[in-house]
Amino acid sequence: MAEPLGAFTRKLDQNARLALPDVFLEDYPRKIILCPGYDREIRGYTPKEWEKFDRQLAELDKRDPDNADFVRFFRSMAHTVKLDGNDRFKLSEALMTWAGFDGNKREVVVFDSGEYLEIWESNTWNEYIAAKSAEIKALARRKFGTDGNHGDEQPAAGATAPAGDGD
Questions:
Q1: What global pTM score does this model have?
Q2: Any idea which architecture 7-144 has in CATH?
Q3: 87 CB-near residues (< 8 Å, 6+ apart)
Q4: CA-based nearest residue to 99, from 32, 29, 16
């Protein structure tokens, strides 16, 4: 799927319904599986992508307590939503609590991460981005390197990183 790019700010209506931005309608069907994400976001999977993820969950050995916890975390709050005639779907109370919504917080940020939608309460998203901004440069240097090798190769023995921060 060629995912739409960009983040979109939306407001939930009084019934906790989110109108899916038009740009997502081609790639996301009328049915979406919602579940929690790792960072207090809500994930929205197409049925095909959810099936892949759910298969991975099913393959975990649930005799391992960590695996059992992991499966419980995702499957306990997962549910299927169907878009109504106005391309809206309702967020569950459990997922809204997970994502940091309260009665007054109704603004969301939604974007496609490549395999699923991410839906964030807007203040939580802004705090997340602010906290991660310093890490993004370091991650880019680790992944892509500053020496042009894109992180795929290790520097030769005795090689050192350039001085400074590379900006």
A1: 0.79
A2: 3-Layer(aba) Sandwich (3.40)
A3: 19, 20, 22, 25
A4: 16
